[in-house]
């Protein structure tokens, strides 16, 4: 295996395993900043050693073992300064490669839930909570988080550093809080799980169109939140959204790993069990009796797609109405862009293009690749091929996902030849 391929493989492994490793180390050290440092140390050691010795059969356990040894060494060096850390270290058995299945699949799952509540503590600002949790649970770089929120990378880096310092200084516990405290943190927890799922569903960067394991972790966390907060409609709404979206996984890429867009997917291969679970969760959200919130509204939109036997049978008028409702409860430029797509499907591309053109001056969408991508699609439908080609090329230059770039360049090439 070449050095570059080995490094790409290590990066993929890290994105899958890092949240579990950091959660386990946080349980051990009670300091999320130290936990990330030790996990990063293990990653650096892997980058140095694995190209020579080969990738272990159980790389996650190898990383956990290495990181834990670093943590225990640190505790021993600071014995006089902090006897508590020594006692914690001495009371825990070392992880080994042989017991890796227990190490990674035992109570680590609960640790992820504790970690998300810890990083969503109200001692942090809303922006800091989200940035830190995406960093630790999703393994996103500061650059990727910055692109997701359309802000400067330095701003995100500062938020994360300050957040870790604050958690340590305030002694925020590593635990699932009481019911009252959970309620105070619920909106941020749901937002982070939602963003975690979205990053898995459409990867910001890299060679893969999506990261299903990240989606699965988000769904699992959502289900756990639903069990401990059964009367919160938005919890069920978020679970419904993720379940329905997950039902499409098998049809989102072809055998070469190339993306298949929603309208071109084989709906007969959508996972009906996940669809039914999602629709049932949406029904639970509605029966609680409150006005539908942003997650429930998005789940209702996903349900419209799930219940259409063919793409042609999609109820785009209802979807446009649901986006209108969503724009009122959770207004954002991205919601408006999605609403423009729905309106174009319901009433014609000219109407959609008019709305998209109004978004061109929106500061938050500058550098957002889906804006020119959507505009290119609408221009194709209007027979303005040369303009569409330029939009697809512009979108391709903005995205950092290799699969998405390939799709956009292919669409640009299909527009060659001028107006239709």
From TrEMBL:
It comes from the Bacteria. Residues 185-285 form the DUF6596 domain. Residues 116-167 form the RNA polymerase sigma factor 70 region 4 type domain. Residues 25-79 form the RNA polymerase sigma-70 region domain. GO terms for molecular function: DNA binding; sigma factor activity. GO terms for biological process: DNA-templated transcription initiation. Pfam families: DUF6596, Sigma70_r2, Sigma70_r4_2. This is RNA polymerase subunit sigma-24. It comes from Paenibacillus oryzisoli. The lineage of its organism: Bacteria, Bacillati, Bacillota, Bacilli, Bacillales.
